[in-house]
Design brief:
Catalyzes the formation of methylglyoxal from dihydroxyacetone phosphate. It comes from Xylanibacillus composti. The protein has a single domain, classed as Rossmann fold. 50% of the residues lie in helices and 14% in strands. It has seven helices and five strands.
């Protein structure tokens, strides 16, 4: 079971909801996390259970970043709006930097998101289970 974060900027939330609907059968087999409004909208349109954090600008990106920093997140789908300045851009950059440090796959657009979800369907993320199994302090 993977830990998957779903994050979407305001103008990408509808796209994220449609993505979650399309891959609900995959996401239902994993633990999902999301920033506030994104998680709420997905839960309203699907039967998925999502652990919701605060809205991104209010610290939600940093809350997810804390899971990334401790290598407890396996995949992030972050549908970013490249044409709109974000007031919490430093938080976004910090989250992406942490994902790079920990080697966590990140999709920032729907095309890459679909590739990663298809990889999950095929079982290509089994290497993440090894990360969890051999994490320092794991039994």
């Amino acid at each position: 079971m993977l830990n998957i974060a779903l994050i979407a900027h305001d103008r990408k939330k509808e796209e994220m909801v449609n993505f979650a609907i399309a891959y609900e059968h995959v996401f239902a087999q994993h633990r999902l996390y999301a920033t506030g409004t994104t998680g709420q909208r997905i839960m309203e349109q699907t039967k998925l259970t999502i652990t919701r954090f605060m809205s991104g600008p209010l610290g939600g990106d940093q809350q997810i970043g804390a899971l990334v920093a401790t290598n407890e997140m396996d995949l992030i789908v972050f549908l970013r709006d490249p044409l709109m300045a974000q007031p919490h851009e430093p938080d976004i950059i910090a989250l992406l930097r942490l994902a790079d440090v920990q080697g966590i796959p990140v999709a920032t657009n729907i095309a890459t998101g679909e590739l990663l979800v298809k990889a999950i369907e095929r079982g290509d993320f089994a290497w993440r289970e090894l990360v969890h199994k051999y994490k320092p302090g794991a039994v």
